[in-house]
Amino acid sequence: MEIIRVKRTFKQPYAGGADFHTFMEKSRYVIARDLMAQLPRDNYEQTKVPELPKEYYGEDLNGKSLLILNLFALGDSLMFTPILKHLKKKYPKSYIIMETRQGYNLLEGNPYVDEFIYTPVPYTRFKEVDYYTDCYEYVGSYFYNYMNLVDFWAAKLRQFDITDKDPVVVPKQEAIDYMKPIIQKIRDENPGKKIIMAHMVASSIHRSLPPYLVSKIIDKMKDEYVFITAHPKWEAPAVDISKELYMMDVENLSPYMEKPQYLVAAIQEVDGVISADTVVPHIAAALKKPCVVISGGVAPEAQHFPKMSYTTSQPVYAKYLGNTCSAPCIMHAVAGPCQEAQIKQKFYSPCFDNIDVDEVIFKFKTIVHYIENPDKDIPTECPICKETNVYFEEVEKSWGYRLWECSVCGSIFSLPRKAKKTLDDILNKEQLKPFYDTKDIEDIDNIDNKEKLGITNIFTIYTYPTIRALLDVEPKLKGKKMLDVGFNAGKLLAVASELLGIEAYGVERSEAQTEKVRKALKNISVDSAKSLDHQYLKSLKDRWGTFGIVILENVIGNLEYPYEFFEAVKDLIEEDGVAIFTFSNKDRPYVKVRKGLDWSVEDGDYEFTLNRVSARGLEIALRKAGFGYTHANATPLFPGDIVQIMGPPPVLTLNTGNNQQMNINPAGMETYIYNYMKPILNSFSLHGQFGIVLASKKPINNYWFKRLDVLWELIQTNVMRREYIVNTYLEK
Questions:
Q1: Cα-based distances in Å from 539 to 531, 542, 568, 580, 715
Q2: Which positions ≥6 away from 327 have C-beta within 8 Å?
Q3: Domain annotation covers residue 399
Q4: Are strands 401-406 and 392-398 parallel, antiparallel or unpaired?
């Protein structure tokens, strides 16, 4: 925020050039620094003033005035309206003033704003208010790229008790009267069908939807819905060309869109919206219309729609990893096709080539279902920790579920508690084949170093060294039986039996996999569980007795009754036994920054997965289930993961002086990034990719847990040098 004094009257165009800010001679204005940098330098001078209002930090506003300084774009303005609504309801006697632009008439009629001031804000009006809040210069900042804006603004204004995060738009009756007969005519011509608005065009081409993608969606939904599209009037000819070129069965209402309020009225009259990431989803959310936002390069899960900020708008993410980028790239505006599109000789962003049309349709129908049944599938207790009468936050509607987050253990779980697809589907899924590598089983008897076999799996890299170290410091566990629940390719069974002399048992969901392992490991008892749940574990106790060590690798996500399962595991271990849980960590950075890069991260995973837990949250649940002692950690981010989180690194050009330059290729950048970030990532051990929690009925030797931390740190430090672990630390 800066204050300037104008030397001579001039007009400055908006970023879009449609309207102008007028600066009057000898007047003083409060403006953003980035706007000031665009002004003709000879026309103004910076100045200081003797007094400023107080900056607002959550004080009682009753009887007070608050000025919100901003240069919001139209969509961002609508994202701020939940804050205005919350403030006005909380402080009904307050006087709220908001800076805006004359062309942004979607804010007109907002009952939570008492006065609008058009940019630039006169200093004479600014000094009259009791409080102000500075919301300038946020685009491209960290919180804009990676945080939910509604939550950020609430935190900035210290409104931590906000619950209603839907935006506010008030349709004008004149606009409704204009659009209603137009939409009704389409209904009359298509009896029995509902109407969906498909909005393709965004302010930047890399966020605009390719017409061929929209055409695929229309073709799959045309039996139930008729589609319309509505863009600004001047875009109508371009829409007609796309409609004809891609044979889109859609009614183009763009010629009627003379005013922005006509778009609002059109959305008010339709039954749903499928849109690019632009202002339209915010309007749809304000009008409580079901809306799917198709995300490309920008991250709507960060900026607009994460964790169910909007109750009726949900994103579908681009699962794209390209030559120069990975989605989302966090580019906000580009003048033409993005770099990746240019390399692939495309006009639209290649991100959209990976959009799953079925996911778009399924998510839309899920939103419609829960709008029509708002009281359905609301939790009364957490299935992971069994807490009741606590706050459950709805985080998403996806694949026919409502996803909820427990405020006690932090776990995310789905309701209803039945997966869309069965475990048989996930066992046959192409991308999971590495977890069931037949070659690994065939080579068990031939491999020269079973120790290497024991640490090749992403989960086993922690489990095997942990068991070995555990046996070193806990003599009571030597000679005890070990049960591996979910043994995958049988690697851990093989090395535990041959190298550690453990009497090993294994359970797996896949019958075919069980038979393969049974043939390869003839001295190990294995069983196929048609239903891997707490009832099955109780039957195992009757058949095989109790165990000194129970390994549960990546099974928590598929449990319908996880808390009861934890109790059954507790009963399955001996009094001095240990259970070792490994799982995909809910708190890993992947989930927040890079969705869609592997099967266990993307939201589509909830086709199969019912639960997501964190290392600390699982500890809470296990303690409640009766375990007396728990200890948690997580794997680090691997170098490849770090690079994916940041996006594939470009060639970096460094100026070395004397007019010389040095180019660092992507491989060099990866090494640089990893080496400098490794100490930071290793410091946040609970936020790694995969969690590991040890649980016992009674405290284990304290020396063991101290040594465990050292062991895990060693594995993290040398995680990409697995031969070092084998040849040095684990040498017999």
A1: 12, 5, 10, 20, 36
A2: 295, 296, 297, 317, 318, 319, 320, 321, 351, 354, 596
A3: no
A4: antiparallel
Q: Report yes or no on 388 lying in a domain.
A: no
pLDDT value at position 446? 45
Task: Give 328-332 contacts, CB < 8 A, sequence gap 24+.
Answer: 328/295, 328/296, 328/297, 328/298, 328/299, 328/302, 328/594, 329/297, 329/298, 329/647, 330/145, 330/297, 330/298, 330/299, 331/204, 331/206, 331/297, 331/298, 332/139, 332/140, 332/204, 332/298
Among the listed residues 325, 318, 357, 364, the one whose alpha carbon sits nearest the alpha carbon of residue 342: 325
- 440 or 605, greater pLDDT: 605
Q: How far apart are CA 87 and CA 357, in angstroms?
A: 40
pLDDT in tens, 415-438: 998 766 665 665 555 433 433 343
Contact between 631 and 576 under an 8 Å Cβ cutoff? The reply is no
List the CATH number of the domain containing 255: 3.40.50.2000
Half-sphere exposure of 373 toward its Cβ, with a 13 Å CA cutoff? Answer: 12
Q: Are residues 704 and 597 in the same domain?
A: yes
Please give the span between the terminal C-alpha atoms of the chain, in angstroms, as a whole number: 66
Instruction: Please say whether the beta carbons of 634 and 689 come within 8 A.
Output: yes
DSSP string across 263-308: HHHHHHHSSEEEEESSSHHHHHHHTT--EEEE-SSS-HHHHT-GGG
Strand residues in 155-290 grouped as ranges (E): 194-199, 225-229, 250-252, 272-276
418 phi and psi angles, rounded to 5 deg = -120, 130
Structure tokens at 435: 């977890």
Residues 282 and 145 in one domain: no
pLDDT band at 587 (very low <50, low <70, confident <90, very high): confident
Per the listing, tokens 């050039």 go with 17
CA 220, distance to chain mean position in Å, is: 27
Query: Residue 56, Cα to own-chain centre: how many angstroms?
Result: 31
**Cα separations in angstroms, 612 against 307, 405, 601, 608, 619:** 14, 9, 10, 12, 13
pLDDT above 60 (res 581): yes
Do residue 226 and residue 362 come from a single domain?
yes
**How is the beta sheet containing 121-122 ordered, strand by strand?**
44-46, 2-6, 28-31, 121-122
Count up the domains in the chain and report the number: 4
Does residue 200 sit within a domain? yes
Cis peptide before 475 (omega within 30 of 0): no
The shares of helix, strand and coil residues in the chain, as percent rounded to the nearest 5, are 40, 20, 40
Could you tell me the residue range of the domain that residue 330 belongs to?
173-371
CB atoms under 10 Å from CB of 500, counted, come to: 15
Phi, psi values for residue 131, rounded to 5°: -135, 155
673 and 627 inside one domain: no
Q: Is residue 132 located within the same domain as residue 189?
A: no
